C-alpha cells in the first residue's frame, strides 16, 4: 500500500514544523523556535525534541549546580520541587548525588563531544575506566540487577552520516538558486521548472548518463508530488516514508527551513523569480541519494539505557559510598534520569527568580506624585527599561510610558531612494497602508567603490592599484579610530531634507495598499496608543514619541538588534509619523469629538529615535515656534545625562571595560563599540530578559530591574471590561514570549537552536549566514548574543483580576495556549492596592505568599547598584528624590 | 653588528613567546588575555619598526652565517641574506601582523581557545620571517612546513565541527603533495650543485628541472588550478585567522619563494613559459569562479587567487620589484576586504537599495554551473590522491594478509576476552 499525494504533503508539513522558521537576515524577527507546538506542554515538547531530534532541552547539570551553590536557586524551593516529584530530601545520598558530577555521561556537552568524535554514545563502563579486580567484581554484581518495570525507555536517536555527501554537493546550488543578488552573476529567470534544469546542468559531471536521462524524463512530468511518490516511495509504508523525509529534511535543517519559508512567504525576499520549493529540494536529494549513496551508514545514539544506569551506580558505589542497597539505587537512578533532574532544577530556578521579583514588587514603597512637564513614550523593549529609569531619576518632571514600538502604524514604508518598501509593523500584523518618504536621493556614494566585492579579473586589477592604497588606509583608520570614522561617514552619507506625508489624498483602488491614512484612521490610531497606555488626562506640555533601533558595523544580524515590533527595522519613521498625526489640529478635533480625548493646544508632540547600541537620541522636525527654547535646552540636558548613565550601566556588562568608568567615557566607549570593525558584541541585545510587567508606571517606579523587564503601560481604572487589556495582551504576550523563548532555546542549545559563534560566519546570498563556504544555514541567535542570558521562561506580571484574564484567555487561543502550557508564567497584581499577588498554576490563580524574607537593598541612585557579570542583582530599590 | 641585532629582534622574541604560550596552555583568565595580546603587539611593532629603520639605513646586502654543524669534512651553515627585497617583505608582513593583532583582539577575546590562536600566530610569524631571510633550501622547507601545519591547525580551529576538520585535512593533504616537489627539488639541488644554498649559478638542465619543481611546490599554497579549491574550503576558522593565513600569508608565500629563487629558474625559458601559461589559465578560471560564488568569503578567496596568479605572471616576465609592490598592495587590500566581509549586508542596504547598482542576472549556462563547483578542482584532486595512494592501499592489504594475519587474530581474541 503506497502513500497518496495528500499523505506526502501532510508528512512534509509535519516535518517542516520542526525546521527553523526564520526569515532572511533583513527580516530577522525573534520568534519561538517551537511555535508550532504551543498547544502542547512546554516540558513535553522540549523533551520530545531532545529524544527525537537530539536538541537539548535544559541547561547542563553543572550550570544548575553552580546556580544552587550561588543561592540563585534557593534551597527551600528546590527541596519543595524535589518533594513534589516524589523524592525524599532527608536522604543524604540524594544531596550528594545532586551536588556532584556523577551524571557526566549524560551531560549534553559530553554527548556533543562524542558525536563529533564519531563514537557511539553508549559505552561499557568497563572500557572507560581502568578496571581492577575489585572493580570487575563490583561491575559483575551490578550488571546482574534485573530491570524493574518502572524503567523508562527512550527511542534511539539515528543520524544518517552518508547523507553528508549529498549536502556537500547541493549546498552551492541551493545557495546560488536562492541568491538575492550577492554574487557577481546571478542565475536569471528561466521559468518555473528552472531549479530542475539547473540541477541537471549542475550534476552533469557527477552523475552517469542513465541517471541524467531518467532526470530528463522526470522533469517532463507535470506533477512533482506524483514523481516523488512513483519514483521513490512506491510500495513503502507510511512510517518508512516518514523516516526518509525526516532524514532528508533534517540533514540540512537551515537550508530546508529557508526554502520552505521562502516558498510560502514571498514577501520576505526582493527577488520574485525564485522557484525553488521544498518538493524540488526533496526530489533533488532523493535522486542524488539513489545514485550517489551506495551504503547507508546510520549511527545510533542511545540516550538512556539499562547499561548507563548501571554505569552510574558503579561510579557512585566506587567513588562515593558502598553502603546502599543496589536495588534501591537502581530504582532511584531509573526514576531520576538526567532529564527529570534537570527539569526539576529548571523549574526551581525559575520559581526562585519569580519569588525574588514578586516579593520585591510587593514590599515596594509608593512614590509621591510629581509635576509632569515631559511625557515620553518608549517601546516596551527591555533595553529601554534602564533609560526610562534614568530619565525619571534625572528630573522630577519626566514621566515615561511603554507602548509597542511601531506606535500602532501598520504600514509598509519606503525611504528616500530605496528600491522597494519594507514592513514597519510586527510580523503578525497585515500591513494595509503604504507610506513613502519624499526627497532627493543620494546619487553617488564612495561605498560603491570601496565595498565592492564582485571583483572579476579586470575590475579587481584596476582596483588593486587605484583603490587598494586608499582602501587600506580607510579601513585601517576605521580599525583604530571607529568613532572618528563614523562621524565622517555620517557627514558624507547625510541625506538631504526629506518629508513624509501621511495623509491619504487619492483613493487608489488598483493597488493592494492604501497610500496613506485618512484623518479618521489616524485619529483612531492616536487614540488607541494614548488610551492604551493610560494617558487620557493630564497631558503634559511636551510628549515625546521615541522609537528605537540599532546601527552597528560588521554585523550581519543587525535586524535582530533592531525594533522587533517593526519586524527588525529602525522605528524612526513610525515615531515621526505618529508625532505628525498627533500634532495635526484636524485630527485633534476628531479625537475630541469622537473619542472624548481632549488634548490641549499647548501640548506638542515630538518624534524621536533612540539608538540602543550607541545610546544616541535624536529628535526630529522640531518646530521652534511651539517649543520654548529654555525648555528645549532643559530637555536636551536631561536626555544627555540620562543616556550617558544608561551607557555606563550597559558598560558594566562588557568585558574590556573598566568598572569605574565615568558616564561620559562610557558613552564614548559604546559609540566606539557600535562602529568597530571587529566587535562581535556591539550590544548585548535582549540578553537577561525574563520579565514583562503590564501596568501603571507607579508599580515599577524607583525599582531597579536590571534591564530584565519589558514594561507595558496600562491603566486598569479606565478598562473595567478588559477590552483594552485584551488588545494589549494579544500583541504583547506572543511578541515577548517569542523573544524570551528564542533566547531560552539559543542559550540552551547553541548548536541546534542557535547559530553558534559569530566569529566564523559567512554571509550567503543576503539570506543568512553559514560556517565556511559549504555549511548549513545557521539560524537562531549567535552565541555572542545569548552568552550572558539566563535561560528563564518569562514571567508576566499584569495589573488585573483573574476574571478578566480568564475572559481574555477564552477569547484568544494563542494566549491561552502559551499560558496554560507553561511556555510563559503569569502573575496578577491587584490593581487596588498593588499588594496582593496571584500566581497562575495549573489552571488556577493561587495567592503568592512570601514564605522566606528576601533582603532587598535600597540605593541612592541606579548607578550605585553593583551590577555586573559576577554578582547579578535582579531587583533593588532606588531612593526617592524630593 | 647592526644586522645581527636586526635578525635577533625579528626571530627570537616570537619563538620564545610562542613556546611560552604552549607551555602555559589554555586558560580563560581575562587579565592573562590582555597580557598576551600586549606582548604579541609589542613583538610585532618591534619587528615593524626595526624593518623600517633597516630598510633606510642598510645600503648594501649583508650575509649572516650561523655555523650549525661543523665536522672535519662537512659543514652545515645557516645563512640569512639581508637585502632590499627581503627587508621590504619583512616590512609588509610585520605590518600585516600588527593589523591582524588589532583585529583579532576584540574578535576572539572571549572565545574558548584564543590561546591556540595567539600561539599559532606567533609560530606563523617567526616561520614567515625566517622564510623571508633564509637562503638554505632545507631550512626554507622547514619553515614552509611550519606555515602549512599552523594554517591547517587553524582551519580546524572549531575542531568539534566535522566539516572544519575535513576541510583542514583536505588543505593539508594538498600542501603535503606539493611539499613533496619542494623536498625533491632540495635533493636535486644538492645532487646538481653539492650545496643547499639557493644562491648559485645553475646549469640549463638544473635550472629547468628545479624551476618546474619549484612551481609545483608553490601551486598548493598559492592555489593554482587544479589545487585552487582548498582556499575557499579553508575559510572555516574565525574571520581574523582566515584573513591572516589564507587571504594573505599562505597564498603569497609562494610569490616570496619565486622571487627568492629567481636566480635559479630564470635561466630556463621552458620553466618561465610553464609558469606564465599555467598561471594564465588559473587567472581566468578563478576570476570567473569569483564572479559566480554567492557567499562573500568564497568570492573574496577566488578573486584573491586570480590576483595571485597575475602577480606570478609578472614575476615570470621578470618584473620583480613591480610584483613586490603589487603583492604588498594586494595583501592589504584583501585584508581590509576580508575584515569588512560581514558588513556586506550593510553595504547592500546602502548600495543596492539606493538603486546605485543593479543585480546582474544572466541566463546561466553549463560554464556557470562548472564554475560553481570550482571547475571540478576538488574532485580532480581527490581522484589524484586516490590514484597516488592506490599502491599503498594495495601494499597495506597485502602486508596484512601475508605477515600480520596471525597477530590480528590474536588482538581480536584479546578484545573478545576483555569484553567478556
Keywords:
heterodimer; A: 882 residues; alpha/beta; six-stranded mixed sheet; five-stranded mixed sheet; 24 strands; 43% helix; globular; B: 420 residues; mainly alpha; two-stranded antiparallel ribbon; 17 helices
Q: Brief overview, please?
A:
Chain A has 882 residues and is of the alpha/beta class. Helix content of chain A is 43%, strand content 12%.
Describe the structure.
The complex is a heterodimer of chains A (882) and B (420). Chain A is an alpha/beta fold. In chain A, a hairpin with a 7-residue loop joins strand 20 and strand 21. Chain B is built from 17 helices and three strands. In chain B, strands 1-2 form a two-stranded antiparallel ribbon. In chain B, strand 1 and strand 2 form a beta hairpin. At the A-B interface, helix 6, helix 9, strand 2, helix 10 and helix 21 of A face helix 3, helix 6, helix 9, helix 11 and helix 12 of B.
The topology string of helices and strands of chain B comes to HHEEHHHHHHHHHHHHEHHH
Which radius of gyration of chain B do the C-alpha atoms yield? Answer: 23 Å
The global form of chain A is globular
Largest sheet descriptor of chain B: 2 strands, antiparallel
Strand-residue proportion of chain B: under 5%
SSE layout and pairings?
The complex is a heterodimer of chains A (882) and B (420).
Chain A: H1 5-16, H2 42-53, H3 61-69, H4 75-84, H5 92-99, H6 108-116, H7 125-128, H8 133-143, E1 157-160, H9 164-177, E2 186-187, H10 194-202, H11 209-220, H12 224-232, H13 238-249, H14 253-264, H15 278-292, E3 298-301, H16 306-319, H17 326-335, H18 338-362, E4 374-379, H19 384-394, E5 398-403, E6 411-414, E7 422-423, E8 433-439, H20 447-450, H21 457-466, H22 468-480, H23 482-493, E9 498-500, H24 519-532, E10 542-549, H25 558-561, H26 572-583, H27 585-594, E11 604-611, E12 616-620, H28 629-651, H29 663-674, E13 691-695, E14 703-704, E15 709-713, H30 723-748, E16 761-764, E17 768-771, E18 777-778, H31 783-786, E19 795-799, H32 802-811, H33 813-820, E20 825-829, E21 837-841, E22 844-847, E23 858-859, E24 876-878
Parallel strand pairs in A: 4-5, 4-10, 6-8, 10-11, 13-15, 13-19, 19-20, 23-24
Antiparallel strand pairs in A: 1-3, 6-7, 8-9, 11-12, 14-24, 16-17, 17-18, 20-21, 21-22
Helix pairs in contact in A: 1-13, 3-18, 4-18, 8-16, 9-15, 12-15, 16-17, 19-28, 22-23, 24-27, 28-29, 32-33
Chain B: H1 2-24, H2 30-57, E1 62-70, E2 75-82, H3 84-107, H4 114-133, H5 137-155, H6 162-193, H7 204-221, H8 230-233, H9 239-260, H10 262-265, H11 269-292, H12 296-317, H13 320-339, H14 344-351, E3 361-362, H15 366-372, H16 377-402, H17 405-419
Antiparallel strand pairs in B: 1-2
Helix pairs in contact in B: 1-2, 1-4, 2-3, 2-4, 3-4, 3-9, 3-13, 4-5, 4-9, 5-6, 5-9, 6-7, 7-9, 7-11, 9-12, 9-13, 11-12, 12-13
Amino acid at each position: 500500500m503506497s502513500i497518496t499525494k495528500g499523505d506526502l504533503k501532510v508528512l512534509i508539513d509535519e516535518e517542516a514544523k520542526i525546521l527553523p522558521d526564520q526569515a532572511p537576515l533583513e527580516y530577522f524577527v525573534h520568534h519561538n523556535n517551537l511555535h508550532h507546538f504551543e498547544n502542547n506542554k512546554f516540558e513535553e515538547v522540549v523533551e520530545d525534541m531532545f529524544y527525537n531530534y537530539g536538541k537539548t532541552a535544559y541547561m547542563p547539570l553543572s550550570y544548575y549546580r553552580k546556580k544552587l551553590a550561588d543561592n540563585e536557586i534557593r534551597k527551600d524551593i528546590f527541596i519543595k520541587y524535589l518533594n513534589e516529584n516524589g523524592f525524599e530530601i532527608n536522604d543524604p545520598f540524594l544531596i550528594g548525588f545532586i551536588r556532584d558530577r556523577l551524571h557526566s555521561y549524560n551531560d549534553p556537552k559530553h554527548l556533543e563531544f562524542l558525536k563529533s568524535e564519531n563514537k557511539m554514545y553508549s559505552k561499557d563502563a568497563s572500557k572507560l575506566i581502568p578496571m581492577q579486580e575489585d572493580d570487575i567484581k563490583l561491575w559483575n554484581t551490578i550488571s546482574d540487577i534485573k530491570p524493574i518495570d518502572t524503567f523508562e525507555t527512550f527511542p534511539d536517536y539515528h543520524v544518517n552520516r552518508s547523507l553528508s555527501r549529498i549536502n556537500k554537493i547541493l549546498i552551492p546550488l541551493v545557495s546560488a538558486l536562492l541568491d538575492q543578488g550577492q554574487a557577481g552573476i546571478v542565475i536569471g529567470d528561466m521559468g518555473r521548472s528552472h531549479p530542475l534544469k539547473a540541477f541537471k546542468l549542475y550534476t552533469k559531471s557527477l552523475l552517469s548518463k542513465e541517471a541524467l536521462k531518467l532526470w530528463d524524463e522526470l522533469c517532463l512530468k507535470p506533477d512533482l508530488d506524483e514523481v516523488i511518490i512513483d519514483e521513490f516511495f512506491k510500495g513503502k509504508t507510511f512510517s518508512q516514508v516518514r523516516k526518509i523525509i525526516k532524514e532528508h529534511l533534517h540533514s540540512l535543517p537551515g537550508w530546508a527551513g529557508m526554502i520552505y519559508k521562502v516558498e510560502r512567504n514571498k514577501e520576505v525576499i526582493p527577488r520574485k523569480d525564485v522557484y525553488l520549493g521544498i518538493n524540488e529540494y526533496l526530489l533533488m536529494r532523493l535522486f542524488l541519494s539513489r545514485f550517489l549513496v551506495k551504503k547507508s551508514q546510520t549511527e545510533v545514539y542511545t540516550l538512556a539505557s539499562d547499561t548507563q544506569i548501571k554505569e552510574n551506580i558503579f561510579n557512585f558505589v566506587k567513588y562515593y559510598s558502598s553502603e546502599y542497597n543496589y536495588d534501591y539505587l537502581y530504582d532511584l537512578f531509573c526514576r531520576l534520569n538526567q532529564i527529570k533532574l534537570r527539569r526539576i532544577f529548571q523549574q526551581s530556578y525559575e520559581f526562585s527568580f519569580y519569588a525574588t521579583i514578586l516579593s520585591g514588587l510587593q514590599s515596594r514603597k509608593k512614590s509621591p506624585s510629581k509635576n509632569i512637564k515631559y511625557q515620553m513614550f518608549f517601546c516596551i523593549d527591555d533595553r529601554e527599561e534602564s533609560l526610562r529609569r534614568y530619565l525619571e531619576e534625572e528630573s522630577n518632571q519626566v514621566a515615561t510610558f511603554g507602548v509597542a514600538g511601531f506606535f500602532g502604524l501598520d504600514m509598509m514604508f519606503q525611504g528616500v531612494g530605496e528600491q522597494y518598501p519594507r514592513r514597519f509593523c510586527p510580523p503578525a500584523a497585515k500591513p494595509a497602508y503604504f507610506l513613502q518618504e519624499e526627497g532627493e536621493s543620494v546619487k553617488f556614494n564612495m561605498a560603491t567603490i570601496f565595498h565592492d566585492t564582485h571583483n572579476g579579473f579586470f575590475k579587481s586589477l584596476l582596483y588593486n592599484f587605484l583603490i587598494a592604497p586608499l582602501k587600506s588606509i580607510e579601513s585601517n583608520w576605521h580599525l583604530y579610530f571607529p568613532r572618528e570614522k563614523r562621524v565622517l561617514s555620517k557627514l558624507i552619507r547625510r541625506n538631504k531634507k526629506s518629508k513624509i506625508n501621511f495623509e491619504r489624498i487619492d483613493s487608489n483602488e488598483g493597488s493592494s495598499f492604501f497610500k496613506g491614512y485618512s484623518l479618521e484612521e489616524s485619529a483612531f490610531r492616536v487614540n488607541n496608543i494614548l488610551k492604551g497606555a493610560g494617558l487620557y488626562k493630564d497631558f503634559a506640555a511636551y510628549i515625546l514619541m521615541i522609537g528605537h533601533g540599532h546601527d552597528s558595523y560588521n554585523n550581519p544580524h543587525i535586524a535582530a538588534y533592531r525594533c522587533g515590533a517593526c519586524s527588525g527595522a529602525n522605528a524612526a519613521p513610525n515615531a515621526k509619523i505618529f508625532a505628525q498625526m498627533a500634532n495635526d489640529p484636524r485630527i485633534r478635533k476628531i479625537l475630541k469629538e469622537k473619542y472624548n480625548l481632549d488634548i490641549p493646544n499647548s501640548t506638542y508632540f515630538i518624534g524621536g529615535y533612540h539608538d540602543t547600541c550607541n545610546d544616541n537620541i535624536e529628535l526630529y522636525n522640531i518646530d521652534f515656534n511651539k517649543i520654548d527654547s529654555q525648555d528645549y535646552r532643559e530637555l536636551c540636558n536631561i536626555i544627555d545625562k540620562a543616556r550617558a548613565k544608561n551607557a555606563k550601566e550597559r558598560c558594566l556588562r562588557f568585558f574590556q571595560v573598566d568598572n569605574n568608568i565615568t558616564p561620559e567615557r562610557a558613552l564614548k566607549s559604546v559609540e566606539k563599540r557600535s562602529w568597530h570593525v571587529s566587535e562581535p558584541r556591539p550590544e548585548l541585545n535582549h540578553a537577561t530578559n525574563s520579565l514583562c510587567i503590564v501596568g501603571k508606571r507607579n508599580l515599577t517606579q524607583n525599582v531597579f530591574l536590571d534591564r530584565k523587564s519589558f514594561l507595558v503601560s496600562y491603566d486598569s481604572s479606565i478598562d473595567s471590561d478588559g477590552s483594552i487589556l485584551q488588545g494589549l495582551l494579544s500583541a504583547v504576550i506572543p511578541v515577548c514570549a517569542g523573544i524570551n523563548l528564542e533566547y531560552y532555546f539559543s542559550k540552551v542549545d547553541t548548536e541546534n537552536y542557535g547559530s553558534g559563534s559569530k566569529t566564523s560566519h559567512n554571509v550567503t546570498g543576503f539570506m543568512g549566514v553559514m560556517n565556511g563556504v559549504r555549511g548549513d544555514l545557521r539560524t537562531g541567535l549567535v552565541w555572542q548574543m545569548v552568552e550572558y542570558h539566563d535561560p528563564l521562561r518569562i514571567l508576566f506580571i499584569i495589573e488585573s483580576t483573574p476574571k478578566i484574564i480568564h475572559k481574555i484567555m477564552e477569547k484568544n487561543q494563542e494566549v491561552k495556549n502559551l499560558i496554560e502550557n507553561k511556555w510563559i508564567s503569569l502573575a496578577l497584581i491587584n490593581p487596588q492596592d498593588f499588594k496582593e499577588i496571584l500566581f497562575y498554576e495549573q489552571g488556577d490563580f493561587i495567592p503568592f505568599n512570601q514564605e522566606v524574607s528576601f533582603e532587598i537593598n535600597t540605593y541612592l541612585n541606579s548607578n550605585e547598584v553593583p551590577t555586573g557579570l559576577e554578582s547579578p542583582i535582579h531587583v533593588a530599590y532606588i531612593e526617592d528624590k524630593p | 653588528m647592526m644586522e645581527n641585532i636586526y635578525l635577533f629582534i625579528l626571530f627570537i622574541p616570537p619563538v620564545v613567546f610562542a613556546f611560552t604560550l604552549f607551555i602555559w596552555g589554555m586558560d580563560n583568565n581575562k587579565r592573562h588575555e590582555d597580557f598576551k595580546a600586549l606582548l604579541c603587539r609589542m613583538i610585532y611593532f618591534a619587528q615593524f619598526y626595526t624593518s623600517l629603520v633597516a630598510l633606510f639605513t642598510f645600503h648594501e646586502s649583508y650575509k649572516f652565517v650561523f655555523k650549525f654543524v661543523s665536522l672535519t669534512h662537512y659543514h652545515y651553515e645557516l645563512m640569512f641574506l639581508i637585502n632590499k627585497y627581503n627587508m621590504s617583505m619583512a616590512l609588509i608582513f610585520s605590518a600585516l601582523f600588527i593589523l591582524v593583532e588589532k583585529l583579532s583582539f576584540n574578535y576572539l577575546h572571549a572565545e574558548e581557545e584564543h590561546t591556540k590562536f595567539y600561539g599559532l600566530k606567533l609560530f606563523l610569524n617567526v616561520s614567515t620571517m625566517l622564510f623571508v631571510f633564509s637562503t638554505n633550501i632545507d631550512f626554507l622547507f622547514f619553515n614552509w612546513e611550519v606555515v602549512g601545519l599552523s594554517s591547517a591547525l587553524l582551519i580546524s580551529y572549531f575542531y568539534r565541527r566535522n566539516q572544519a576538520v575535513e576541510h583542514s585535512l583536505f588543505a593539508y593533504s594538498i600542501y603535503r603533495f606539493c611539499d613533496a616537489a619542494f623536498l625533491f627539488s632540495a635533493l636535486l639541488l644538492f645532487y646538481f650543485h653539492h650545496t643547499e644554498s639557493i644562491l648559485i649559478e645553475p646549469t640549463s638542465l638544473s635550472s629547468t628541472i628545479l624551476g618546474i619543481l619549484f612551481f609545483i611546490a608553490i601551486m598548493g599554497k598559492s592555489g593554482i588550478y587544479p589545487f585552487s579549491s582548498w582556499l575557499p574550503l579553508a575559510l572555516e576558522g574565525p574571520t581574523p585567522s582566515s584573513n591572516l593565513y589564507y587571504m594573505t600569508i599562505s597564498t603569497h608565500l609562494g610569490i616570496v619563494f619565486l622571487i627568492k629563487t629567481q636566480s635559479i629558474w630564470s635561466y630556463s625559458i621552458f620553466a618561465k613559459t610553464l609558469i606564465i601559461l599555467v598561471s594564465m589559465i588559473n587567472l581566468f578560471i578563478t576570476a570567473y569562479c569569483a564572479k559566480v560564488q554567492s557567499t562573500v568569503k568564497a568570492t573574496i578567496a577566488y578573486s584573491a587567487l586570480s590576483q595571485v596568479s597575475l602577480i606570478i605572471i609578472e614575476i615570470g616576465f621578470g618584473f620583480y620589484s613591480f610584483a613586490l609592490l603589487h603583492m604588498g598592495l594586494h595583501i592589504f587590500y584583501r585584508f581590509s576586504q576580508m575584515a569588512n566581509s560581514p558588513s556586506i549586508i550593510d553595504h547592500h542596504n546602502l548600495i543596492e537599495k539606493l538603486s546605485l547598482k543593479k543585480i546582474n542576472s544572466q541566463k546561466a549556462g553549463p560554464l556557470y554551473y562548472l564554475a560553481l563547483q570550482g571547475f571540478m578542482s576538488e574532485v580532480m584532486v581527490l581522484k589524484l590522491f586516490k590514484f597516488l595512494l592506490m599502491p599503498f592501499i594495495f601494499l597495506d592489504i597485502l602486508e596484512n594478509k601475508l605477515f600480520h594475519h596471525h597477530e590480528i587474530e590474536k588482538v581480536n581474541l584479546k578484545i573478545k576476552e576483555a569484553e567478556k
